Amino acid sequence: MKYKVKELSSLAKVSVRTLHHYDEIDLLKPEYISDAGYRLYSENDIERLQQILFFKELDFSLKEIKEILDNPHFNKIYALNGQKELLIEKKNRLEKIIEAIDKSIVLAKGGLKMSKEEIFSTFNMDEVNKIKEKYAKEAKEKFGNSEAYKQSEEKGAKYNENDWKNIMADAQKIFGEIASMMDKSPSDDAVQSLVDKWRQYISKNFYNCTIEIFRGLGQMYIYDERFTKNIDKTKDGLAKFLSKAIEIYCNNNK
């Protein structure tokens, strides 16, 4: 399904002007432009907007949000878990406020005594702010203009068309080798050797692939359908197999 600007504006409760601005700064560009020149947003665009609004809630600047979402290591599941925890805490706070209002109604009828401290403590934002600060700090450390991202940008800028062909061919070769081992356990020594080869390939051609980064990549292979679809072109189920093999590799190389 595709959404016009006004439709997305109404759905997400953000202004058309805001969406136009996000387009202009390359933060949220519509996936399609109609023959008549209309911006048309896809389901993937809606998911990205969801992440933008979440990180805005954490007080990130638009520049920082773009760096995070464009980072090759961005983990959608991590962000969604953060959103869930923040919303649960906000829900708990609202429930306390509703409970305080109910008590205040009874108090107004003369049936209950309630201290001012008890009333105003329900409006405390400390717990909500703690969660916001925690995820803001973690997100900056994990995705915000990381050293790995810088390395990837610098190396990528030096490659010519032939270099890229060779790099992609090497990747496909490793995927093929791993796919040929899918009848074995992901923990098999031969499989684990190829997983290490894949990690070294990433470090050589893109950035220093630490265990933490490698673990995150393995998770994205199954949680991000774009990765899954691309990897499974070699063999159906390869993304899931490789993800599990990477998890085992990382657990054994902490």
Automatic annotation (TrEMBL):
It comes from the Bacteria. The lineage of its organism: Bacteria, Bacillati, Bacillota, Clostridia, Eubacteriales. One of its GO terms (molecular function) is DNA-binding transcription factor activity. This is DNA-binding transcriptional regulator, MerR family. Signal peptide: none annotated. Residues 2-71 form the HTH merR-type domain. InterPro entries: DNA-bd_dom_put_sf (IPR009061), MerR-type_HTH_dom (IPR000551), MerR_fam (IPR047057), TipA-like_antibiotic-bd (IPR036244), TipAS_dom (IPR012925). The keyword Nucleotide-binding does not apply. Pfam families: MerR_1, TipAS. Keywords: Activator, DNA-binding, Transcription, Transcription regulation. PROSITE patterns: HTH_MERR_2. The keyword Transcription applies.
